[in-house]
Amino acid sequence: TEALLDCRLVLLRAPAGFGKTSLMAAQLARLPPGTALAWVSLDADDDAQRLFACLTAALEPYDLPWRTAPEALVAQLVDDGPGLRRAVAELVNALAGAESPRGVIVLDDLHRVVHASAHRLLEALIERLPARWSLMLASRVDPPLALARLRVAGDMAEFTQDDLRFN
To answer: Rounded to a whole number, what is the largest CA-CA distance in the chain?
Structure first.
């Protein structure tokens, strides 16, 4: 739980059967009251458009102050250029304006995502994520993100199969 309050990114990386999803649910239940929580389970066909649409749908209960309708932003995510940058900027601004004192976005089964556009969207989101928000990722393998940079900067907590293994 401490990692979710202190780090921009929390990565759980372990093979199937190590309890990543169960651990996430248990840790999220320990967060302070009023914490905004968005949980997205990922699939192989998730590209940037679908990921963004799922994220905005999961965040809908928190009535974020969008300047541009999320549906319009999804439509602009047809390339990795200005559309992606604009969508991420709008999402980041909406998260920064949230009334919740703290927020966590959970992306479960990231290993299933094969579209590079979805990884570029995540990379951009992680880079600009407001200080009150954390991103928690669960994957069977290292995601294709700039993890080394986040490790060096101290912006990431990482838990592997050795940490999840029972003793």
So the answer is: 50
φ, ψ dihedrals at 162, nearest 5°:
-65, -35
16 secondary structure, DSSP code: T
pLDDT for res 77: 86
Name every residue whose Cβ is closer than 8 Å to that of residue 90 and which is 6 or more positions away in sequence: 66, 67, 68, 70, 73
What pLDDT, on a 0 to 100 scale, did the predictor assign at position 134? 95
Residue type, 167: N
Radius of gyration for the alpha carbons in the chain, expressed in angstroms and rounded: 15
Residues of the chain below pLDDT 50: none
- In whole angstroms, give the CA distance from residue 150 to residue 166: 28
d(CA 49, CA 73): 9
Cα-to-chain-centroid distance, residue 89: 15
